[in-house]
Amino acid sequence: MPSIVGPIKINSVGGGVVNFGDSFYVSPKDSAKTYAGSGSFNTGDFICTNNGLNSTNTNDPDFADQIIKSNA
């Protein structure tokens, strides 16, 4: 089945897959944990972020967050 894709802006792709149109089976295998403070993952063309004091909690009591197994 054909698809219509509108305007697209891709700033960067790091280790990922970008599909346009039809895709039958997409199963990426990746697991990562990222810690960031306030206002650190803002995206856009014109950003103005004013932050006071902030702290990032990096304590993680879990044994595993996402387990990647086999191919399905």
Give the termini separation: 24 Å
Structural class from helices and strands?
little secondary structure
Counting DSSP E segments of at least 2 residues, the number of strands comes to 0
Averaged pLDDT, please? Answer: 75
Quick one: biggest sheet?
A: none
Helix-residue proportion? under 10%
Percent of residues in beta strands: under 5%
- Low-confidence spans: pLDDT under 50, at least 5 residues? none
Radius of gyration computed on alpha carbons: 18 Å
What is the overall number of helices?
0
Shape: flat
Task: Write a compact overview of the structure shown.
This protein is mostly loops and 72 residues long.
Features:
72 residues, little secondary structure
Tell me what the structure shows.
The structure is a single chain. The chain is largely without helices or strands. 0% of the residues lie in helices and 0% in strands. The two termini are 24 Å apart. The model has no long low-confidence stretch (mean pLDDT 75).
